[in-house]
Amino acid sequence: PNSVAFMILYNHDSNEQVLVGARSNVATAVELHNHIMAEGMMKMRRIEQAVVPGHGQVELKPGGLHLMLIGLNQNLEVGERVTIELEFADGQRLIVAAPVRMPEGMKHEADHGKHSD
To answer: What domains appear along the chain, each with residue ranges and CATH number?
Structure first.
């Protein structure tokens, strides 16, 4: 199974930062992906890097840039935190403790099962 990670990366420095990779102990691989329009359809594609401009930010979000956690080696429980190590082109590494949340579309479907007549 796979999962996805969303976040906002802030750069408080005047120089751009370039995200070039990521890893996590909960997945075999972590890849940076983006959605692009190809042949009239939105398709997800792996990309090599994401630029965070100086004094700017980049948002990893549904329908845009995001991290794919491929080959999960454990079940992820809502409320726990997953450690993701981000790798930048200048050699810097940033460790993020990302909370596990239920996807917005899935939340509505899960709530359906709780209705009583």
So the answer is: 3-112 (2.60.40.1890)
